[in-house]
Amino acid sequence: MTLREKISHLHRRLGFGLSHEDLDAQEKLGLNRVIENLIDWEKVDEEFPVSPYEFCWRTSSKEEADLGAYRFRAWWIMRMLATKRPMQEKMTLFWHSHFAVSDSKVEDGPMMLDYVNGLRAHANGSFADLLQTASQSPAMMRYLDMNRSERGNPNENFGREVMELLTLGIGNYTEDDVKEVSRALTGWGYVHTYYEQPGNADDKLKLSIKYSRPFSAFAEMPALHDPSEKTILGKKRPWNGEEVLQMLAQHPATSRFISGKLAKTFVTQKPEPDYVEKLAGAFRKSKGDIKAVLFAMVDSKEFWDEKNVRSIPSSPADYVIGVGRKQTVGQYLLGLRAKDATPLTQIPQPALDQCGYAAYRMDRAGLLLMNPPNVAGWEWGDAWITPAAMAERMQFLGHGIEQKERSDLASERAILFASRVKLTDSAHFVSRFAEFYDVELPKEKVMILAAILDKFGGVKVLENRGTWGGVHYTMLRNLAAAPEMHLC
What we know:
- This protein is mostly helical.
- The chain has two domains: 265 residues, no CATH class; 150 residues, no CATH class.
- The chain has 26 helices and four strands.
- The strands form two sheets. A two-stranded antiparallel ribbon has the order 1-2. A two-stranded antiparallel sheet has the order 3-4.
- A hairpin with a 2-residue loop joins strand 3 and strand 4.
- The relative contact order is 0.11.
């Protein structure tokens, strides 16, 4: 692979793909710097100033602030579209599926926002810290019926899931372990601070923002904890909840379970056991440092193997956000905001509409942010590519942002890129158009799309700027029918 191809591969897997301008800029940095910026993202200025609460204020003065999860979902979409740290958002989504929590049961937007922000804060850090943050998130606790776990009445639902789905995996614990872990977690609960405050939604939101108050908070109640000895995975002691989580995070089975998931998501759908063990070794050696595992993953020959490049079906987020980032929609949406915008400023309606539309298209294709289907999260890889899902993907033809002069931003960018060189024929245009969307089409499919353009008059039709929208719409719709557009 060339340097440019390697950088494209990195950003498809670890981010959401690149616009051609961003690819030019990344190429100048060199491969090592690109890898470092992606994985060690704290070194990159986020440059995303938008507060999630800007999405909550209503247009009518008669309506109170709306704190539904769908508002924060739109904010997350905008962040994915505009962020300078794409892998941070990609890893937040990965952990959102791993530590699955759904607003369909939680029914609390601020809880869901705090939970997602907790995942984001620890997405490439210590797995033990991430596990504790997710487990003590009120949204997770509410989702797994841990409103309050008391001595003599422990919650076994959470105790089971923390081993089966979050750490060890099936087959590495017993039913007795479930009961004992549940006893160790007694005394845990949460308080619902926001809804206990007086006043209407506007007043409570303003005060919460002013004083940086949490909307809900984890609460440990020692008087309700069971302090007696418990035997967990063969070790007997008076375990408490945090000690159990630390032990589970450092268990060898956890290193293999987490490394296997990372390998399947970012490298190959069928990783060899030896490869998973290699990543698990990096996990154990670094004492569960996620960043160390990610660097080991990208440093492996398997990550760069030609058979693994463009081999994993993209998720609906990869697809929708990827198209948006190539169309530079995020920068456009940021430009709609006033320069002096604050958390008390309403997001411009076009920005809310575009982000809401993107969330809708992702949902139709099988991924609704903040609403995984069950405690196991989403199925990834081939599970995304069903006939119904493909039909829905073909309905998404870009974000179609209209600028003030009423020219379509997406169409203009794609056609101008394709026409940057002297086009010889329709096939040449199709190849350039596919390159704009980072799609590698075989020759026979290039010719199929070229025949479609020929029906409109071939490349001569591009001489009339007024036709660009129609050409872009038609070509993107047909490009979306190609399986190659849905691989990363």
